[in-house]
Design a protein that fits this description.
Layout (H helix, E strand, L loop, with lengths): L2 H21 L2 H17 L2 E3 L2 E2 L5 E2 L13 E5 L4 E5 L4 H28 L2 H5 L5 H6 L4 H35 L9 H23 L2 H26 L1 H4 L8 H13 L3 H12 L14 H6 L5 H24 L4
Antiparallel strand pairs: 1-4, 2-3, 4-5
Length: about 325
């Protein structure tokens, strides 16, 4: 196939994936969850409580508060809940952004997206599927790549809606603008793309949505465990002074697994570092062994993300090779 035909086929398959998300209502479910998060952010307000380095309390408009112990007030859900604070007015907003970024989108949202998109590829690979029949005589690898890119574009669109929507809503309501929060869009999309490639391989091997759901979630958990185990092995001597060293085989095996597999913990740590979350809340990066790895400068974010990004290339190659041997 020439380049225009490949581009046309990919565009058609991506559009077909979006039609599939609309038919399965996954599109509307994710959109609804994003809207709920945005509405929640619109119900947030911050009054007073800002502090200067000298320790004096100030309001957002620059006027000093009465009394050295005055505190600000964080209001949630349009006044239903209120909580005092005595730090800079941006810090409670920063904390809310960290919850949205690390836990709601970065962990819960990622796993939900894996579960809800797991059935797209197995359905498309069934012999009677319209996407397979209409894409012929396109190569099997092109069908696989088109559906994969379609799901990635779908998740990237909803990540954009979530991050931009919550960022704008909180910014408009509190006048606190944290631009680094928007880095969650490419980081979350890349994180999903890496893990979803394992779901693609499972779809080709088993043609089962159940296998893709269970397998992709387990793969994420195993990758996280390997990420943790390698960092633990890396700083074991410092965390356990006087203890016998780990066997060389254990250290070498954990290092090999770390560089071959995706690194879910590293994705979250990179995002936390971009947002400077350690100043306002307990983060993954502040917990051992990750904190020790960071303190000893043994964390290399660019190499970590780049090696993770290579995993989909291998997974998609293996999946397309197996699919090419199948007869529809």
């Amino acid at each position: 196939m020439d380049a225009p035909a490949v581009i046309y086929a990919l565009r058609w398959l991506i559009n077909d994936t979006f039609r599939q998300t609309l038919a399965s209502r996954v599109f509307w479910i994710l959109l609804g969850l994003s809207v709920l998060a945005i509405v929640f952010c619109l119900g947030v307000s911050v009054e007073g409580g800002a502090t200067r380095d000298e320790g004096e309390f100030w309001t957002r408009d620059g006027q000093p508060l009465q009394g050295p112990g005055s505190a600000g007030r964080l209001t949630l859900m349009f006044g239903l809940f209120q909580a005092p604070f005595s730090r800079d007015a941006s810090e409670p907003v920063h904390l809310l952004l960290s919850i949205f970024a690390s836990w709601i989108a970065g962990t819960l949202g990622l796993l939900m997206a894996l579960v809800w998109t797991a059935g797209f590829l197995p359905d498309a690979l069934q012999p009677g599927s319209a996407s397979v029949l209409l894409a012929k005589p396109a190569p099997h690898w092109l069908i696989l790549l088109g559906k994969y890119l379609g799901v990635i574009c779908f998740v990237g669109l909803h990540a954009t809606i979530f991050f931009v929507g919550t960022w704008l809503a909180l910014g408009l309501k509190t006048d606190v603008w944290q631009g680094a929060y928007l880095l969650g869009i490419p980081i979350l999309t890349l994180h999903f793309a890496v893990i979803f490639s394992a779901s693609v391989l499972l779809a080709v091997l088993f043609r089962s949505a159940t296998a893709c759901v269970i397998g992709s979630v387990l793969f994420w958990l195993v990758s996280y465990a390997v990420n943790y185990g390698r960092d633990f092995a890396l700083v074991y001597a410092e965390l356990n002074p006087g203890a016998p060293p780990l066997p060389a085989f254990t250290s070498a095996f954990s290092e090999l697994g770390y560089w071959l597999l995706p690194k879910p913990a590293d994705f979250l740590i990179v995002f936390e570092q971009c947002l400077e979350l350690g100043q306002v809340t307990t983060t993954l990066a502040s917990q051992p062994p990750f904190s020790t790895v960071l303190r000893t400068e043994q964390f290399h974010p660019l190499a970590s993300l780049a090696s993770s990004a290579l995993f989909p290339v291998v997974a998609l190659w293996a999946a397309s090779s197996h699919l090419a041997s199948q007869d529809y």
